[in-house]
Design brief:
It contains six helices and 21 strands. It has two domains: 115 residues, no CATH class; 401 residues, Porin. It has 520 residues and is α+β, with helices and mostly antiparallel strands. The protein has an 18-stranded antiparallel β-barrel.
Length: 520
């Protein structure tokens, strides 16, 4: 088997070789317009959107063709991941303004091109949705939110309803290494988001549910849901306050390292409350933020009786500061320091271990644009945790994350990504595991209404004070066809597997998905 780092290097070299001949055909935005948008973004999303409107009024040719519109969307979206707050409405508003400025005869083609372009940013913007626990197989119905639709204006708010429905075949629904069970599964995922359209301050709300139904294994049926409310108060041009909360119900995927062999999936509830302030001092953005998270896990029945999960219930308190230098458009370095306190409801778990801990994450990073079509972000530092239990040794390791996005051509984009974290575990004798994931995603538009993607990912879970090592592999390929400007059909194939030092934890899984979706 290829070494993961060598595998990723080979993949990137092959991608560069394949796309290099067409890279020069990607449309570009005039440098004065690009600089105008970049400077405006330093004052926040409202200033960016106002600057975009001014650019479109002065240069209507920027939205005259699908290629030009997609290039403008790319430049306008580059600073959005750095904003504090709900970023999805910003992407949607960028799309709406460019589409509205397009000539009537080109509007549908522009809508497709802009929506496809912004979907790449949405799919890689970690602030779009709260992070889920690491698992090699994400919920099958998860898709990047649509950004090409305008929604419905009601007073000073815009409403964005969406619905995704479909089905998939799973060759190993319990993610076991023997006696695999297969089934067909139906899914339905309606959601609605509401965004304010005020000149100052902002309010964003979202609610949705993910329903799954198994044909032959009804005990695996789930009804997950999530809600989010977030507001931003603009005290001045240079000072903004963010307040928000998240409430959700999810279930642990059967492939999770901490899943229990219950007769039904393990449900958990998560409540988050967070707040922060961003203040501009000269060429520096200073961000102070804090969050409180509450996690509760439900007990489930097993073949030998009740499986007790309440000893996993806990609170998490996070606080930190980030200082970013925004003097330069193409290189924005930052330093970051975070503190993290985790307190369990029960002083000991069922094995007698005290899992309360204190942690930190600190380091340096930068956002960068190496070329108009090559952007990314990187972070490098250290992270660690100290545990209350005297038998648990401190866990200290390298902290690193980042992504690199290359728009090789108007129709082709490549993304490399990686992340490291210290995760909680239920494994007896181990305080935690260090989770490292790296991968790549290739997206290509074969036609205006037909797009495809290939995704590769490798992950390693290294359990502290244990010989257990899990290596996870995830490969998927898919197509999406737009029947109309608002309705699409999707087909995906996904292969996931785990190779563990504990052979009983090995599994392989094949999944085939069929989806129909619409954003109104």
């Amino acid at each position: 088997m290829l070494n993961p780092s060598r595998w990723l290097a080979v993949l990137m070299i092959a991608a560069l070789a394949l796309a290099a001949p067409v890279a020069s055909r990607a449309a570009s935005v005039p440098e004065p317009v690009s600089r105008q948008l970049s400077l405006a973004a330093q004052s926040g999303p409202v200033a960016l959107l106002d600057s975009l409107a001014q650019a479109l009024a002065a240069h209507p040719e920027l939205a005259a063709t699908p290629d030009a519109a997609a290039a403008l969307a790319r430049v306008a979206s580059a600073p959005v991941p750095d904003f504090v707050g709900a970023n999805l409405p910003v992407y949607r508003e960028i799309a709406a303004r460019i589409i509205a400025a397009a000539p009537a005869a080109q509007r549908d083609a522009v809508r497709l091109a802009v929506g496809r372009e912004l979907a790449s940013y949405v799919a890689n913007d970690i602030r779009i949705m709260p992070a889920l626990p690491p698992a090699p197989a994400a919920p099958p119905q998860s898709q990047p939110p649509e950004v090409g639709g305008r929604g419905f204006d009601v007073g000073s708010f815009t409403i964005y309803p969406e619905v995704h429905a479909g089905g998939f075949y799973d060759s190993n629904i319990y993610a076991t290494n023997t006696a695999a069970k297969s089934d067909w599964v139906g899914t339905l995922s309606p959601s609605v988001a509401v965004q304010s359209n005020w000149d100052r301050n902002s309010l964003y709300a979202e609610a949705g549910t993910d329903l799954t139904g198994y044909v032959h294994h009804g005990s695996e049926n789930t009804a997950d849901w999530h809600t989010q409310l977030e507001g931003q108060i603009d005290l001045s041009k240079n000072t903004h306050i963010l307040l928000g909360g998240i409430l959700l119900q999810e279930h642990e995927d059967r492939a999770s390292p901490d899943t229990v062999e219950g007769t039904t999936p393990t449900l958990y509830h998560e409540m988050n409350a967070y707040g922060g302030v961003v203040h501009r001092i000269g060429d520096f953005d200073v961000r102070l933020a804090g969050a409180v998270q509450r996690l509760t896990f439900g007990n489930v029945m097993g073949t030998n009786g009740l499986i007790f999960n309440h000893d996993r219930n806990r609170n998490r308190y996070t606080f930190g500061v980030t200082v970013r230098d925004v003097a330069y458009d193409n290189f924005r370095p930052f330093v970051e320091g975070l503190g993290d306190i985790r307190v369990y409801d029960q002083s000991t778990d069922e094995f007698g271990y005290q899992r309360d801990s204190n942690g930190y994450r600190a380091g340096v990073g930068a956002q960068f644009r190496l070329a108009p079509s090559l952007t990314g972000e990187a972070f490098l530092g250290a992270m660690g945790r100290d545990y209350k239990d005297p038998t648990f040794k401190p866990v200290t390791t390298v902290a690193a994350d980042g992504y690199l996005r290359w728009q090789a051509a108007q129709s082709t984009a490549f993304v490399l990504f990686m992340d490291r974290s210290i995760e909680e575990t239920t494994l007896s004798g181990s305080p935690a595991y260090v989770y490292t994931v790296a991968g790549a995603r290739i997206e290509h538009a074969f036609l205006d209404d037909l797009t495809g993607f290939v995704r590769f990912a490798y992950a390693n879970a290294a359990f502290a004070q244990s010989s257990r090592q899990d290596n996870e592999f995830d490969t998927s390929v898919g197509l999406r066809y737009y029947v109309t400007k608002r309705v699409y059909l999707g087909a995906d194939y996904r292969f996931t597997s785990r190779r563990s030092s504990e052979a009983t934890q090995d599994f392989a899984r094949n999944q085939v998905f069929f989806t129909v979706g619409s954003s109104f």
